[in-house]
């Protein structure tokens, strides 16, 4: 183990009780934590002067304990460097086994991730540095409920300008899941117990609604999006991804948009719009939000998880006025992260990042479709995934055989309440460009093997 600030043994609790002089008790205590594995091989101990001050002992007590443990082989000391733990448990470097994690697949075609290789590190770091250099001291306190006022104002302007939303205020969350969960709890408190959701759809959000105590009913999706005429009676809320439906990739047609808004007015209901993949449309400009057509009937949810990185934990939601006081504000991300994103937006860095990402994803999608050859794919030219139909095949068997070849893909049935025609969901957002051909070739081989097995 190399010496680093992460393995300095400065804060280990030592049991200094028992008989004997202080240097013997300290020797015993240090020997115990080393043998138990609390201090692993390579952990750096504090300088004798520092530990003496911390324990209220003389420096002689510390040096005597260190010298004794060095003589016994538990510690090692070098001139000019820290005293470190030398001993390790028999049969390994540490007494406690380190849990192993599964190795990632060589090629990951799971949906839901942007291109992490192209996260705008330099521009984001510049935004963080500017905040750290210029933020008033008060900004280092507890985050403001609902989000920092500066980010809320900047984000509202962005949503009006780029997404066609009609928002006077927007609240900050840790992501779409967080915002949706809060809306679900408000629905239940308002006496709405049934919510409709697209079928197929993102199962995570369905589980959130169920945990909130709501009854979730699926509504079929076709080439025009959600079948509004099949929303069941009793439902007064519906979850939709109109800009780019997940996972089918369809876009809610103008007629269906109008029908959905008419439904919401008729039942005095709420449309919950997940603005999923809205920024990435490759055959035309992205369509605007449904929320912009009737902000009194639509709650708009969004995040940077698919545009920048889910690691940032930044999302937002805009509510109709009558729902604002019913939805409890989220515990927000750290204020410094919020201010960095506000700076990132104000500088135009977010817009530039999205323009570059659109070009990159379009080229990658085209390359993947070409490499798949005659295999049937569906969904409009948008987003970070496509659907591959498997007529007459077994998607589960293809997934299994692809995994053996080091390719991770998703069964379309994972997003359905009821299994139907077999298919795969292929995410290409985080796929390396030089892996596109290999991914397609191995997937085609897996499909062929699964087909022969079935025959």
TrEMBL record:
Residues 20-88 form the HTH gntR-type domain. SUPFAM superfamilies: PLP-dependent transferases, Winged helix' DNA-binding domain. The keyword DNA-binding applies. InterPro entries: Aminotransferase_I/II_large, HTH_trans_reg/aminotransferase, PyrdxlP-dep_Trfase, PyrdxlP-dep_Trfase_major, Tscrpt_reg_HTH_GntR, WH-like_DNA-bd_sf, WH_DNA-bd_sf. Signal peptide: none annotated. GO terms for molecular function: DNA binding; DNA-binding transcription factor activity; pyridoxal phosphate binding. Keywords: DNA-binding, Pyridoxal phosphate, Transcription, Transcription regulation. In the C-terminal section; belongs to the class-I pyridoxal-phosphate-dependent aminotransferase family. This is GntR family transcriptional regulator. It comes from Amycolatopsis alba DSM 44262.
